[in-house]
Amino acid sequence: MKKTNQSLIDDLTEDLQPIHPVLPRQGLLWVAAAALATLVLVVLLLGVWEGVTSGRASAFFFITNGMLAALGGGAAWTVVHMANPQVGNSARPTLWSTLLLAIIPASAIITETAHGRMDEVITDVHGFACAMQGIAFGMITAGALIFWLRRGAPVSLVAAGTLTGFAAGAIGSFAYGLSCPFDSLGHLAIWHCIPVGFCALAGRFAVPKLIRW
Amino acid sequence: MQQDEPTLAGLMAAAQMGDRAAYRTLLKEVQRWLERYFRRRVAPQQLDDLVQEVMLAMHNKRATWDSSRAFLPWLAAIARYRWLDHLRGHYRAPEKPLDDADYAAPGEEDALHARLSLDRLLAQLPDKQRSVIDLVKISGLSVAEAAARTGQSESLVKINVHRGLKRLTSLVEKAN
C-alpha cells in the first residue's frame, strides 16, 4: 500500500456517504422469512402429516422436532449476530443446544442396540430419503444466512460456517419432519439428525470461502 | 483528543450518517489506536500497511457497526481478523529484527486494550510455535535463520509456524 495514512484518510473521508447500518434484527427477519418459506414449501409439496395436526404422533416426534427447531433457531440467531464484528464467545449456546440434541441419537443407539433393532434402523428404506430431503430443505436457510454474512463482516469464518450448517440442517430437517409419518425413536434420532451433522460439516468447509472478505 | 469509547462511538454514529468532519476525526483517532495495537505485533516496516488495511476494511464495513454496541471491540475484532490474514499471507521480505526501541512501552495499554491484546493470543501458543512465529512472521527472519536460532530443523520451523497460525485462528474463533 503506497498511500500515506493522511492521504488515505482524505480519500476515505471524501468517499463517505450515509449508510444504513447492518442490524441483527434485519438479519433475523430475513432468516425467519427463509425458514417460513421452507415451511410453506414443505406444506405445499409434501403436506403436513396428520399425526402432527391430531397430536397422535409419538412423544419422540415432538421432542426431536422441537429440539431441531430450537437448535436451528439458536444457531441462526448466533450466525446473524456474527455478521457484526464483536468480541465475546457467542457460539457457546449453540454448542450446548447441539449436545442436548445429541442425547437423542445417543439414546437411540443405546436402546435400539440393546433391543437388537439397530440393523433395522440403519437399513430403514425411508431413512436415506428423509435425510436427503432434510438437507435439501435446509439449503433455503443456508442461502439466507450466507447472504447475510456476506453483507456483514464475520471475523470467525470457520465458526460462522459451521453454525450456518447447524442452522440450515436443523431448520431443514425440522420443516421436512412435519411431513414425515415415521415417528419411531430410531428413525427420528438417526435419519432426522443426520442432516444437522452433515450440513455442519459441509458448512465448516464450504462456507468460509463464500464469506471471506 | 482522548481515545475514549463514548467519544469514538459518537463519532462513528455521526460518520454512519455521513458527517465527514466527524469521520475525519475518527479516522485519525483510529489510526493512532491501531498503531498502538499493532506496534508490538508486526515489523515496523509493515505497520503502516496493516493500519491502512484495517482502516480500509473499517471503511468498507462501517455499516456493520451497531450503534447500540461498543465501538472499540468492533474495531479490535476487525483489526485482529486482518492481523491474522497478514500473518498468514506470503508477505515475508528480508526485514531487520525488531529491537527494544521499536516496542511500545508496556504501561501504555489500558484495560480494554489489554483484554483485546494480541499478546494474549500469542501467549496461549506452545513455546516452540510462538518463538518461530515471532521470528519468521513478525521479526522477518528466514526459516533457516529461525531454525539456527531456535535449534529446530527447518521442516520443524515450517510445521510449527503452520500449526501455530492454525491454533491462533482457532483461538480467535473461540474468542469471538
TrEMBL record, chain A:
InterPro entries for the chain: NrsF
Protein's UniProt keywords contain Transmembrane helix: yes
Ranges that cross the membrane: 28-49, 61-83, 95-114, 126-148, 155-176, 188-207
Pfam assignment, any one: NrsF
Highest taxon in the source lineage: Bacteria
Keywords assigned by UniProt, alphabetized: Membrane, Transmembrane, Transmembrane helix
Name by which UniProt lists this protein: DUF1109 domain-containing protein
Organism: Halopseudomonas salina
Automatic annotation (TrEMBL), chain B:
Annotated GO CC locations: DNA-directed RNA polymerase complex
Keywords: DNA-binding, DNA-directed RNA polymerase, Sigma factor, Transcription, Transcription regulation
Domain RNA polymerase sigma factor 70 region 4 type per the UniProt entry, residue ranges: 116-168
Gene3D superfamilies to which the protein is assigned, alphabetical: 1.10.1740.10, Winged helix-like DNA-binding domain superfamily/Winged helix DNA-binding domain
Domain of life from the UniProt record: Bacteria
Keyword DNA-binding: yes
Entries under Pfam families matching the protein: Sigma70_r2 (PF04542), Sigma70_r4_2 (PF08281)
Transcription regulation in keyword set: yes
Chain ranges of the RNA polymerase sigma-70 region domain: 27-91
Database matches in InterPro entries: RNA_pol_sigma-70-like, RNA_pol_sigma-70_dom, RNA_pol_sigma70_r2, RNA_pol_sigma70_r4_t2, RNA_pol_sigma_r2, RNA_pol_sigma_r3/r4-like, WH-like_DNA-bd_sf
Family: Belongs to the sigma-70 factor family. ECF subfamily.
Name of the protein in question: DNA-directed RNA polymerase sigma-70 factor
Origin species: Halopseudomonas salina
